[in-house]
Hints:
By secondary structure, the chain is of the alpha+beta class. The protein has two helices and six strands; from the N terminus they run βββαβαββ.
Amino acid sequence: MKHIKEVRVDGLQQPISHYTDAVLSGSTLYMSGLIATDGDGNVIGKNDVIEQARQIFRNMALVLKAVHGASSDVVKIMVFMRDITQRAAINPVRQEFFGTHRPASTLVEISHLVNEDLLLEIDAVAVLETSPTHAG
Length: 136
């Protein structure tokens, strides 16, 4: 499919299932759920939702950079948290990443993630100013 490009990003762990880090369709970037792991798959910030949020947004920045995007291109995020009462704790991290930009957002409390040490997962959609000629 010529209009769809799979994006694999240096610095993110290898997908653990049948998916890619993101899919670019025209100027719209659909990011897979991002978790608090480094490139080797190690969980960053075990038992610390704030550090996990920071790692997730660092990973999101890597995905955006791979397609010449920025945090201001993100139009929607969906946050999956194991403990929704920790929502207020991650808000400052979101503000660090997005600045004054406010993407649409959904928050869902869930019981499990792919690894028991993970406290949250975030996926996102971004609309890039122009469709990149090279990504991933």
